[in-house]
Amino acid sequence: MFHLSTRVGAMAAAVAAVISVPVASASALAPPPSSPAPTGPEVSLSVRTDSVVATATVHYSGVLPAVIVAWGDGTSSRPSPPTASLPGQPVPSAGSAVVQHAYDENGGFFTRRVSVISTTTGRELAAMNVTMLPRYRVSQQPIEFSPLTHCDSALEAYTEWDVFTDGGTGPSREWRFDRHTADPGGVGVPLPNFGVLPDSAVSVETTAGHAPRLGYSGWEEDPVRYDFFDFQYINFEPLLGSRPLTLTYQQKFGGDCRFQIRTAMVVELLKPGLVGPPVVSQ
Predict the structure, then answer these.
(1) CA distance linking residue 206 with residue 88, whole number of Å
(2) Which residue, 215, 140, 213, is CA-closest to 172?
(3) What is the rounded average pLDDT for all residues in the chain?
(4) pLDDT tens digit string along 53-72?
(5) Which of 37, 60, 92, 187 lies at a 20 to 30 A Cα distance from 29?
């Protein structure tokens, strides 16, 4: 009986000991609060376009991260980190970096995706699509004129010409002049013999598919009748490229009077505002 009472008492004491163990609060058991994760600099992008030139501005707060501007054509530019304006001054913690790019494109509208990419993580930080329209300067060089035949009688040594435009690129132009095309007795002068028409160069800015044409014609003046010629046209379409050009004119109504004009077309893809390789930072 004694042993049984002793054993029961010992078990009760053990249960009481277990029940009396203090229980920690839920807040005490939770892991310690973590510090806020550091946030990187805020980066945004704006792009201005003109013809095939894109000017991208990377705006940032905080220190400018290591980034590149990808232009969407397989090329990229790396903005220079800003520097202090005065010795000993801290590097600015906000600002912008400007980079430029000229696309090697010909034709009409095209769209490219411009993006700011971290060189550390490869992550795209900002991006936008830009649509561009190439512009061109197409220049017709000075016109050279020559008769190909002596268009007057054997009694005349000179032919009298009136050459003019149709005003396709602006006000119409006109040139009146004489050319020595035969010696007395009807002996022909070697032809062609080209001469420049003064102030005949023309230059226009245009886009592909919307270029003007400029028509040239003329007549040879005779005391009895004039020799007339149809208009022929010079096309300022930039996609035709730079090229020499010769137009040959045949007298209307079956006559044998002929002349030529020749020139050269020069096409330049405009890259306005391009200041050279990147970078301007501020």
Answers:
(1) 51
(2) 215
(3) 83
(4) 999 999 988 777 889 999 99
(5) 37
Which two structure tokens, joined as six digits, stand for 1?
């009986």
Q: Could you tell me the CA-to-CA distances from 195 to 157, 160, 203 in Å, in that order?
A: 17, 14, 20
Domains of the chain: 42-134 (2.60.40.10), 137-269 (2.60.40)
Could you report how far apart the first and last alpha carbons of the chain are, in Å?
97
Q: Which residue has the tokens 């002049």?
A: 177
| pTM for this prediction | 0.76
Averaged pLDDT for residues 188-196: 90
In this structure, are residues 109 and 135 in contact, taking their beta carbons and an 8 Å threshold?
no
277 backbone dihedrals φ, ψ, rounded to 5°: -65, 160
Nearest CA-CA partner of 235 in 168, 172, 142 = 168
- Give the model confidence (pLDDT) of 235-250 as tens digits: 999 999 999 999 999 9
Cis peptide leading into 212, omega within 30 of 0?
A: no
The 10 Å CB-count burial string (b at 16+, else e) for 34-45 is eeeeeebeebeb
